[in-house]
Design brief:
about 575 residues; about 15% strand; single chain; 25 helices; globular; alpha+beta; 6-stranded antiparallel beta sheet
Length: about 575
Amino acid sequence: MCGIYGITDHDPTFINNYIQTCKHRGPDGNKVWWDPDYKVTLGHNLLSIMANPELSIQPWKTPKGNALIYNGEIFNYYELKEKHKSNGFAGITGCDTDLLAWGLDKYGLKFLDEIDSMHGFAYYKVKEQELWLSRDHAGIKPLFYAETKQGLVFGSELKGMLDKVPGCRKLDNLAVSFMGKTGINALRNTFFTGIKKLLAGETLIYDVANKRIKQYHRIHIKPTSNNQTFDMVEFKSMARKTVDMCSIGRRKIGVFLSGGLDSSLVAYELKQIKGEVNSFTNKMEPNVVVDEDYNSDANCAKILAEKNNFNHTEVKITPTNFIENWDDSIYYMEQPVYNPSMSMYNYTNKVLSQHGIVVTMAGDMGDEILAGYPKYWKMRSLQWLKKQNLDNGLKTWDDVLKLWLHRIKRPLMLTETPIDDNILLEEFKKCYTGDLWNPEDPIGSYMALDCVAQVPEEMFNRNDKYGMAYSMEGRFPLATKTFMNYCMSMHSDIKMGKGKADTKILTKRAYKNILPNSIINKMKTGWTVPVGHWLTKNMDATLQKFYKDRMKEQHGLDIIRASQKAGKALVPAWIFSDWIKKYNMYF
């Protein structure tokens, strides 16, 4: 895992500064390159996972003399290496960058269909003066870009390009309005005016000579309903295969073991493959038992870890380390998110790094491909859909988008002039087209939308930001093309069954008598720090002061302060307010 940076101009000073700003993304090497005609400058931070760092330094010169900078992993590297021996691939570095460079030269964009990867890369065709920017099918790795008078500027993180994009510190009202409406900014626009992001599965082709975006290419994983049966043996075989694919490399692996089904599946299969597992679980101190026991997941994780002899670490989350890691969590995240637990996520990644972990694994994407949320069950009810103003049910792709747009009950007022819902819907439709729609499986189509709109922004984004802040690469076995295509080939009816409402029944059936009953039978809970309860129950004086200081120092957010009530909803307001101050933003 690495960091990539570039500009379609001769500007090595800017790229060097960008590299230094994001040096946490790659402690194993860095380099700047520019083409002979001074049209493009590229830079790279290296975090070496697969091969000797001396053999992996980028920018990479391809067999045809083009240039590649690459952030990611090709999980079917060994399979493709063997396959393409007869086609002329003679890579000897053991590095997947070598394969990607060769494949793009030989097959062009078609090679993206072959690789099962997480990636953000830039590929510059020198003679054609054409630049390709690409993001993987699931949006695991980020890539941001902006069109300026100087040309196209891009990178793995936002913070290094802010001074290069005029006016970007003005809040983008479209992004802010969409975030306020849905709790997630799933649009192409970022909160920084003029800076955009590639969407999941998207490749941008840029004409360097004429300074214009020529086209976008998109890879979708949609519900196909090809497989109308479920085979437990096959399911477990596919689960083990995808974990095995994601365990490649020579660096120490750590698993975020939440105590839920998905992370437990990943940890269990990794133990069968590698013989050992380093697992990490959050434990709240003081614990709170109100609507749920905030340590119930940690207790389940401990049972699994002890049963399977994991090297298990409980990461204690306290009001003190919540406060101590607050500022870093704001800075590294780069854009505000609707989540009270960002400080905890940042601290947990720091602890993993202190234990020598360089590669992390987690169970994200399991809920979206295997019907893990109760909301999918609700969509079966016409009565419930009518309450969402969908009198005829989910009949079209527009219906899916409209329902997604109302995914949260209490939208945040993040701006005094929110954009109209109809305009938001049209912008949403531009980003996520009907290519994801399967009229034979409307609920599966909603799941497919969650895969590319919710997961990249809510889960993968925080993992990249907080993992890379401590030079760690995050992997998600349940988000490989291989496993996603397998699961999305099954109709949502198979995943939910015909009995009483239950979530992830396929995983439960396949891993019954393998995973502890406490995990199989556990109701779904979130990975959440109980900061709202700590506050309302006056559990920590320092946290109370922290809260009062935040309420005094709202930065241009009187409208938010007036609309928030005590409890969990406070924290998103703090995040938004402190982010505005940290990044010198203005309305």
